[in-house]
Amino acid sequence: RPGGVGGFGKSADYSDDGPRGSRHNETAAYVVTATHESEIDYKKEEKHHKNLEHLGEGGVAAAGVFALNEKHRERKDPEQAHRHKIEEEVAAAAAVGSGGFAFHEHHEKKETKEEEKDSHGK
């Protein structure tokens, strides 16, 4: 076939009408506007840190459960006990790291609240 197998060797033609005939500027989705401190959306930033904090808490729970499961397998499978012990320790380290991340995001959330309070003069 001309242009490669299955047409993958062809380049897309992006004219002013776009690839499907619609008129749009492809770089418009990535426009960054300069913000001043008074224009920062503190509620959105606070929500972002809250969501990341909850994500970290979920990581703590998941890694903790995995570590306990590996501890159980270590006792039940004596042939692979060393492997399960290592995996348990790795999972415990992941839980500690995730807890640190959640703690960090908690303080970022508090800092955002304080910045909002300071910016509005409350």
Descriptors for this entry?
single chain; 61% helix; 122 residues; mainly alpha; 2 helices; rod-shaped
How is the topology of this model organized?
Elements (H helix, E strand, L loop, with lengths): L41 H35 L4 H40 L2
Helix pairs in contact: 1-2
Pfam families: ABA_WDS (PF02496)
Protein name: Abscisic stress-ripening protein 1-like
Family: Belongs to the abscisic acid and water stress-induced protein family.
TL;DR?
This protein is an all-alpha fold and 122 residues long. Helix content is 61%, strand content 0%.
Structural account:
- The radius of gyration is 25 Å and the shape is rod-shaped.
- Helix content is 61%, strand content 0%.
- The protein has one domain.
- The termini are far apart.
- About 7% of the residues have low confidence.
- By secondary structure, it is mostly helical.
Which percent range fits the helix content?
A: 55-70%
The portion of residues forming beta strands comes to: under 5%
From the alpha carbons, calculate the radius of gyration and give it in angstroms. Answer: 25 Å
Low-confidence stretches: 24-32
Name the helix and strand elements from N-terminus to C-terminus, one letter apiece: HH
Query: Strand count, sense and closure of the main sheet?
Result: none
Note the gap between the termini.
70 Å
